[in-house]
Specification:
alpha/beta; Rossmann fold; 14 helices; 13 strands
């Protein structure tokens, strides 16, 4: 795109890497298409965005907001309710100050109040929805935004928006580029990646380590790359002891390289996790994180429907079924290859670039 005029775009949201990195991917695509673009991000102090945006050298403004859709402490709900009008007022001030041509919400606490205020002020707005079953905030916002960018076509039936565009998951450039790579094996063993997100998953850690200890007969046939997260690292270190097939990490910084090594992945059902696994063809064994709207379950069902992965519900988890699935993937290389190819066909293609093109066309 040759447009050299200054265009102002604000992207609101964050909290976790699953919201922040797609936001950055879209922002980078916008900057690539128009180097003169004025890009600002909006988040909250509670999320990871301050740390990540500073490292990425991107502008970030903070507003107050919080989670409404949760059960438990009523005082937390009251505290969140008190933050919302403050966040809306802060959003108003920021929009009047920066005068954006377009506002995009990517989910997370800051997204809803900022996009709502932008829409009320007559700005061009859109949100990005990563899940097959949209969250409450985006279901409400779908009544007022100009455009909804979706990862899954299945999301459409839950939304009121008329201009829905299914572009897939915006991926980091180094992961996007993996789609053109040939799958290669580093050994004849089955390599398993156990990854429960940046903070790890205590449930996945427990089930994977139980499996390894219970099945020593498989130790010569598998390699395990296991990210535990900081909370569980020392416990897992002691539990595994000196088992040679286990490679333990507190945190993995080079995810693309680990995906290249892995054949299958024991993981949660976040949309970004599934999209990254799809790009590399790493067949997922998914245990969706239980939630009020079951959005991770819906994500997993899309994969299973396409015969590209396996689903294990947390409250019905069967250690025997899990062991049988891994044994089958160890022995049946043809099935593993077939599922990997089906999974790669689900991988998003140039989603960040397509979203950027669409935003710039609307401006």
């Amino acid at each position: 795109m040759s447009n050299t005029s200054t265009q102002k775009i604000m992207i609101a949201g964050g909290g976790t890497g699953g919201h922040i990195y797609p936001a950055i991917a879209i922002g980078r695509a916008l900057q690539k298409k128009n180097p003169n673009i004025e890009l600002r991000f909006v988040g909250t102090a509670e999320g990871l965005e301050s740390k990540i945006m500073r490292r990425e050298n991107l502008s970030l403004d903070l507003i107050q907001s919080g989670k409404l859709n949760f059960s438990g402490n009523p005082f937390k709900k009251i505290k969140t309710l008190c933050k919302i009008p403050v966040g809306l007022f802060q959003s108003l001030i920021l929009i009047l100050k920066y005068k954006p041509d377009f506002v995009l919400g990517v989910g997370g606490y800051a997204s809803a109040p900022f996009v709502l205020m932008a829409a009320l002020l007559g700005k061009k707005t859109a949100f990005w929805e990563p899940n097959a079953h949209p969250g409450m905030a985006n279901r409400i916002l779908s009544k007022i935004v100009n455009t909804s960018y979706l990862v899954f076509a299945a999301s459409e039936k839950y939304l009121s928006s008329k201009n829905n565009k299914v572009f897939g998951m915006p991926l980091r450039e180094e992961i996007e580029n993996a789609q053109s790579e040939e799958r290669s094996k580093i050994s004849d063993r089955l390599t398993i990646l156990c990854f429960g997100g940046s903070q790890g998953s205590l449930f996945l850690n427990e089930k994977m380590s139980d499996f390894i200890l219970k099945h020593p007969e498989l130790h010569e046939k598998i390699n395990l790359i296991h990210q535990t997260g900081s909370l569980d690292f020392e416990k897992m270190k002691k539990k595994y002891g000196d088992i040679k097939c286990v490679e333990l990490h507190e945190f993995i910084y080079d995810m693309p390289n680990q995906y290249r090594r892995a054949d299958i992945q024991f993981c949660r059902g976040g949309a970004s996790t599934i999209a990254e696994a799809s790009a590399f063809g790493v067949v997922p064994l998914i245990v969706p994180l239980p939630a009020a709207d079951d959005h991770q379950l819906r994500n997993a069902e899309v994969v299973v429907k396409n015969q590209a992965g396996f689903l294990f519900k947390q409250n019905e988890f069967s250690a025997d079924k899990f062991a049988k699935t891994i044994a089958e993937m160890t022995q049946n290389t043809a099935l593993r290859k077939e599922m990997s190819e089906k999974l790669r066909s689900l991988a998003p293609k140039q989603a960040a670039s397509k979203i950027a093109d669409d935003i710039l066309a609307q401006i």
